[in-house]
Amino acid sequence: MPARETRRQPSVRSEDITNGRLDFSQHLLRHAAQDKPRIDFLSDVLMLILSHSGCHAVEIWLKEKEDTLRGEASTAKQGMGRFLIISDSNHDRMFEKVCAGALTGLLVPHPTCSTRYGSIWFDDTLKPLSRAARLADDQLPEDACIGGRYRSILLVPLRFSEEHSGLLLFKERGRGRFNVERIGYLETIAAKFELALLHQIAQARLRERVKELTCLYGIAQTASNPVLSFERKLEVIVSLLPPAWQYPDRACARITIDGAVFQTPGFKDGPYRQNAPICIGGRLRGTVEIHYRDERPFLQKNPFLDEEQSLIDNIAGQIAQMIDSRETEAVKSELRSQLIRADRLAAIGQLAAGVAHELNEPLNTILGFAQLAQKAQGIPEQTFKDIGKIAEASLHARNIIRELLVFARQAAPDRGRVNMNTIIMDELNLFEKLCSKSSVELRRITEKDLPEITADKSQILQVVSNLIVNALQAMPDGGVLTLETSYRSPWVCLMVEDTGIGMSEEVKENIFLPFFTTKDVNQGTGLGLSVVHGIVSSHGGEIRVESTEGKGSRFLVTFPSSEDTSEK
Ligand code: ADP
User: Fold this and answer.
1) Coil, strand, or helix at residue 75?
2) Domains in the chain, start-ordered, CATH in brackets?
3) Residue 118 half-sphere exposure, CB side, CA atoms within 13 Å?
4) N or C: lower Cβ tally within 10 Å for the chain?
5) Which amino acid residue places its CA nearest to atom 19 of ligand 1?
6) In ligand 1, which atom is closest to the CA atom of 496?
């Protein structure tokens, strides 16, 4: 029952509020509309309710997901309108048990101490609790009382949304301080507070959404900027992340991709962290992380919103797309340049074949007549020698032409089964002697059970010979020449590696072009590697080169194995 001995009545009444004479509602809504952290909003509103309720103290309990937030303001203590998070295990005091029970619906009020609104009042907290209410699930002693320094307490339930519930507690030091009229007034305050809270939650959600969209828009703009390098884009993107989070001042961000790290200035691993993986083609390539770097507690146990998890997942997805399209572009441009190179080689090949055909005729005539002239009787010795030089030069020219024809794939191949191990173990006698003469150690490593390839054996020998000749010429002071076969289904591979002079980037770019040579006129024609390229391509294979100036070169030749080709 409300006590009759009420001495200190509030100076404001419910009709004052409803008549609009007071600006309590406006104040509340103004607080709700401001862009301030939730904890500040709740603290300010608590003080506002205290001043408008005329009570000695006001307390708010709010239940949000797994968090229970609690704040108290009192006329006795300045600055008491602070909000705390209380853990569920902290309900040892009877008062807290009662509040927790009210929050979870376990507090069953006595009909004479409750209103239609669901509020419960305690006229004298030193009297047994059972007079006003009981806890449904708890065996409280008969004489249990709330105690404490406030003897009158009004407990108004807040049920403003599905996810949120709470309590507004009005406290007075004297006993029996709540009568029907006053309870009605305080319930009106509670109802206004519920509205303001709903408004604040909706506003805050809207603001979060705007921040998220601004961030996503910024990322999309940055990703499609053609002027920025990939690294610069990631630097810009990482700087766009903290402002999209609930506590931007405390947030820092880091993006890691394939070991490369992009982070906001002063990044520090913090106790609160949210992250999302960056996956491309099912493979984990990195992460996006947001950390709250300082140790100060937050209003909630988990300061990250569900929406923020979706946002960070979305951002990781956008970054993955950026990497994916960059890599696809790189592969495309490599393919394009390979095509251009192949086109150029084919054009040169055709031209060379035409010229070679035209020159073959007159060269054979020169050679034939030179040999005939040498056989003539009584020619002076010097003339004999000169004619010999003509014949020698014509032979050299004819060799070049033969190579040109091979390069242009004009010579008909004679294909059969070829074992690459046999080629490097049994067919290189000539080079063994050459190596030992030039102080070059010849190492041969063969793959066991290497499949055969379908090839023109003489052409394969030419490939190997050309590569070995180049390797030996690159090691004028000796070194190591390694020939190694291997099998990476469906490819039979041959590696020719030397420890010679190596090549500059510019030389490496041009080596497969016909007539490209860095050697003296007598040493090289510039056709060796073009011929090798032509033969390898005509066998459906590939050739690649790796080289470091001053350290050596490695040629990797691959041919499709006969087994795999026949299976296909
Ligand atoms: P040539 O040997 O007649 O010059 P190639 O087509 O065989 O013609 O080679 C072209 C050029 O490639 C060479 O002049 C040389 O500069 C470079 N080259 C080829 N093989 C090697 C190697 N093993 N080490 C260093 N440079 C090489």
Assistant:
1) coil
2) 3-203 (3.30.450.40), 222-295+304-329 (3.30.450.40), 331-391 (no CATH), 414-567 (3.30.565.10)
3) 14
4) C
5) 470
6) 23
Q: 393: Cβ–Cβ under 8 A, 6 or more apart, which residues?
A: none
Which tokens go with 413? Answer: 């191949």
**Which is the closest atom of ligand 1 to the Cα of 516?**
10
φ, ψ at 346 (rounded to 5°): -65, -40
How do residues 53-68 score in pLDDT, each as one tens digit? 999 999 999 887 777 7
Tokens (6 digits) for 465:
């010979």
Contact present, 232 and 226 (Cβ < 8 Å): no
Q: How far away, in angstroms, is 518 Cα from ligand 1 center? A: 7
Nearest protein CA to atom 16 of ligand 1, as residue? 518
Residue nearest to atom 3 of ligand 1 (CA): 524
Interatomic CA distance for residues 330 and 349, integer angstroms: 28
* CA–CA separation, 404 and 268 (whole Å): 65
The tokens for 352 are 């060379």
The closest residue, in CA terms, to atom 2 on ligand 1 is 524
| Nearest one of 540, 499, 501 to 409, comparing CA atoms | 540
State the pairing for strand pair 272-280/542-548.
Answer: unpaired
State the pLDDT at residue 299. 65
Q: Which amino acid, residue 271?
A: P
Stated as kind and residue range, the H or E segment containing 51 is helix 38-53
Closest CA to 317 of 278, 262, 287: 278
512 CA to centre of ligand 1 in angstroms: 9
Neighbours of 55 (CB within 10 A): 29
Residue among 475, 511, 523 to mutate when testing ligand 1 (max atoms within 8 A of CB): 511
Which atom of ligand 1 is the closest one to the Cα of 471? 23
pLDDT of residue 108 exceeding 90, the answer is no
pLDDT computed for residue 86 by the predictor: 54
Is this model's pTM higher than 0.85 or not?
no
**Tokens representing residue 79 in the block:** 């600055």
Q: Are the C-beta atoms of 180 and 113 separated by less than 8 Å?
A: no
466 Cα nearest atom in ligand 1: 7
